[in-house]
Amino acid sequence: MPKSKVRKKKDDAVGRSVSRTPVKVKAAPSSSIYVSVMLGLMIIGLLWLIVYYLAAEHIPFMNSLGAYNFLIGFGFMVAGLIMTMKWR
């Protein structure tokens, strides 16, 4: 079987070193405070919903909020989850 010919580079690319490989940009890791706040928001939201289910009738201000307790609890958790997108 015949051997294939080796192709040569074009002359117009001589003198320029163009790299076609992507370059990864290294970002600094998140601080421990950022991670603590992120996890804290998710835990606060979870605890808010647990307390609402278990003891809402014994806590006057929580009982008066009614269904808004779901908005508050899930709001904390969603804020923590949104923060995970910037976590490195």
TrEMBL record:
<dbReference type="Pfam" id="PF06781">
    <property type="entry name" value="CrgA"/>
</dbReference>
<keyword id="KW-0812">Transmembrane</keyword>
<keyword id="KW-0472">Membrane</keyword>
<comment type="function">
    <text>Involved in cell division.</text>
</comment>
<keyword id="KW-0131">Cell cycle</keyword>
<keyword id="KW-1003">Cell membrane</keyword>
<keyword id="KW-0132">Cell division</keyword>
<comment type="similarity">
    <text>Belongs to the CrgA family.</text>
</comment>
<dbReference type="GO" id="GO:0051301">
    <property type="term" value="P:cell division"/>
</dbReference>
<protein>
    <recommendedName>
        <fullName>Cell division protein CrgA</fullName>
    </recommendedName>
</protein>
<feature type="transmembrane region" description="Helical">
    <location>
        <begin position="67"/>
        <end position="85"/>
    </location>
</feature>
<feature type="region of interest" description="Disordered">
    <location>
        <begin position="1"/>
        <end position="20"/>
    </location>
</feature>
<dbReference type="InterPro" id="IPR009619">
    <property type="entry name" value="CrgA"/>
</dbReference>
<keyword id="KW-1133">Transmembrane helix</keyword>
<feature type="transmembrane region" description="Helical">
    <location>
        <begin position="33"/>
        <end position="55"/>
    </location>
</feature>
